[in-house]
Amino acid sequence: MPVKTRRLPKKSVSFSDEETLTTRSRQMGDKKRNASHDGPPIYVKPTIKTVPLHLLALLYYYIKLSQDFDARTLLYMLIPLQLIYVALQFNANTIYGNKISKLRWSLLPISFAAALVLTVPCMLIIILLGAPISMLLKETWLLAAHCCILTLPAVYSIFKCNFKVGIFKKYFIAVAIGCWISCVVIPLDWDRDWQNWPTPLVVGAYLGAFVGYSIGPYV
Amino acid sequence: MGILSKTIGLLALQIVAILTFSAGFFPQKSFLKGDAQFLHLPEEQQDVQPRFEKLVLVVIDALRADYLFQDEMSQFSFVHGLLNDGHAWGYTAYSNPPTVTLPRLKGITTGSTPNFLDAILNVAGEDSSSSLEEQDSLLRQFRIKQKTINFFGDETWLKLFPRHFFDVVDGTNSFFVSDFEEVDYNVTRHLPRQLASQESWDVMILHYLGLDHIGHKGGAFSTFMRPKHREMDAVIEQIYNSVDDNTLICVMGDHGMNDMGNHGGSSAGETSSAMAFISKKLAGFSKPVAQRTEHIPIKAKSEDYKYLTKVNQIDFVPTVATLFNLPIPKNNIGVLIPDFLRLFSSHEAHIKVMDNFEQISSVAGQPCKELGSTDAHIAMMRDIQARLAKTATKYDYKLLGIGFTLLAFATFGVSKVCLESLQISVSFLILIVVCFLLSLSTFGSSFVEEEHQLWWWASVGFALISLAKAPRQTGSIFLASVGLRFIRGWNNSGQKYIYEHTTSELLKTHSEWQWILNVFTILGSSLVLRQQPTSSILADFPLSALCLVYKASWSVANGENVPLWLQKVVSNIVPGVANDLNPTEVLKSQLVPMARIFFSWAIAQVFIELMAHKREWPRRRTLIERIHPIITLILIFQTPSTNIPQFLVFQIIAPQIESLWHQLSDSNVTALMTVGLILQHLTFFQFGGTNSIATVSLTNAYNGVSENYSIHAVGFLMCLSNFAPSIYWSTTCLKMLLQRQPRVVPKKWQFFAISRLPALFFYCIFGCFLLGSCFILRYHLFIWSVFSPKLCYYVSWNLFMNVVIGWTLEAVIIAMS
What we know:
heterodimer; A: mainly alpha; three-stranded antiparallel sheet; 9 helices; 4% strand; globular; B: mainly alpha; Alkaline Phosphatase, subunit A; 34 helices; 8 strands; PIGG/GPI7_C (chain B)
């Protein structure tokens, strides 16, 4: 089931009135992010410090150590690590108005709650993009939860940085592309455990997020 | 030289190339002519006493090994008793793929391994090339000995053997797969008379189809299986109790089935069929080794369906020939089952083994040297058999080479023309990516089996790219995606994943909803969805109504669930049904004339539209706009009733795609044709199609075709029904194109050529890779079950969708408009 997660329609629907997203993103493409006319410059510093090493560690745990690819335990481990990542790495390298963005603690639970709420539309999108409807709903929700928690830093930053969605949408896209590409292994007839829904997509989402957070600031 | 003539030239070259390759890949198998004689010490063999006088061959279609031997599955309690008492010897028989009836029957009568062409001929039906009239077979040997053969059951036997082989015959058509009872009753009803007059025949062949039909309809675990087993068991009991010691009863499946109930491939379930030899005489000899320790039914479940001794199904041929003291058919590569040598004295046994050995050596074309023991001979024969079965097909390397080279040239030419005349745009790049992704997938057997996933993957990718390009069009994209998601959930495709709650299954159980949707699709959708003038909707109405009545009558006549209100409507409309005592029979007899009226009416209406178009009345309507609803109706007519509402979904998403195309890609031809290509394939698979021969649907191929049909009409209708959604999308894309570019009269042929280029490009690139993979993997385990069917599908996509629909039908439409 080629399935891809994506948040774009939702984003553009909810925020496009507030901000001219398309022009914004075109400017992004032209690397004119500082020549903004509607607020202070916001970007993530291109530095090695944003590389989310904990995602690789979690993947190692998931593939090698966990039993039967236990996505639930993985999720429990992911949540605190992502919160720490936001606090220590991602936010610490986000530039908001020419200086490093300060961590606002109150936003952490809010963005976490927002990410949890997002799991529902995210799951609907995954189903729209091909996941089975009547069966494996719990697994699909788990996948959606993973995707949403993986994008937690971006969600936090959107709250923090005045809802400038355009800057952070690449992280959503990265997770989505990771999921999408990882679907390729599903049709193979190797009959391995890791081909079961949603294991390959979870792995794909992690890899996508890893690549996204690592090289995101450079693009 | 215009671009049109150039492309047509390249198209012709491509077609010639793939046909040449196919001719080399699927050669007609050559066989040794003439009738077999005893080879080893012929005079002595003449005097050997046949161990049995009469043969009753009971072929139960798709009787998998566990159906006869395994405790949970099997209900053959009488046979189990015989097996335990030693009155019956049971085997698991390996049936060589392709596991479909016609090739398997060839196997169990001639003892040779089939070639792939037979699998297609099984579908294609009437064809003299599959006949065994000239080829030596068990039946022929019986005939030479002046034995009388009676036959009851599947007509395939009558296709294979000339009528004069048989004495009394009653063939059953295997066409209506939904019928479980009548096909078998039609065989069993002859038994009392035949068993009462046993002196009138020497060989009786019964071929039961019901079990196979249950499998196709409800899978291997269908609730109808158990009663059917008991019915078959009772048949065997009836035969056993009325024949004497000198009669051998063989019960066998021609092939097995997988858990979905399909067959044709090479999975363990499909290739493991059951085989049992039953006779009172066998009780006097010791049982086969594996049978001595096992109590039947066997409790343990075997993953690879191996129960008791495993033999090759074609071993049946030399075994029976030996027991009846007949010469072993000339092309046989079966090895006689050693257990049966116990029925002979050791001297005779040795002669018989040597005869089989000499015969099989002559097929292999190797000198036959005497070895030490009987076991050594048997082992040697098994070696030869394995080797011969593997090299059963001799590829014609010269043709393969020519075909591939020509296709490479064609591909080169097409790519060059594409680069020259298509603008290099994002959509062209996407086309290239799609081509290469699909092409690379031809090297993996599972990707070929699950091709629908790749098309779905591509269409999801396409939707996302559109979204990235134009976030403002979210509404259209969302609607189109939802529509596509519905289509994806409609049917199961591929081999790996089977979902129980597909839309078509839901509709089957909720027939009320199904028919409300069908009625709306056929009658109502034009009113609500299309921006057509009311006059043309009114003109189409009688045809739509006829289409609906036919589909409903067909379903009633074939025992599908149809809501009562619709049944009433049908019985009131169709003449003669309401007052008759047996309405279903009348309805059945009315189907053919009704379908004929529909087709003639549709053709007449196309002509009327043509005339109206020439007179330009009403004004400003392109020809394709006029006849597209009629084409859609014909396609709906050829669609199974559970799939009809998909056309409603199509009609909802088509305008979305059209508007997206205008706004996103600035009406780029390549973009639309790429989307069209993806949709053609996606919908083909989501209509239930796969890349396996097993899902070629014949249910709508006989619409309006009477008893003595012509194979061309059936073939054409079969293509029409299997490719119905693809044809819809092909013509719909043409409609969108022509509406965008109205009256480009001076350049219309150039325009047409450019619009056909993307598809041609795809078929060329894909073809190169597919032919390459078929060649490289020609000794692969799955070559006959996965890659060869894919090659056949590729050829039919090319010939039918590309040439007949894309180039011919659409060219005619363009020429007329």
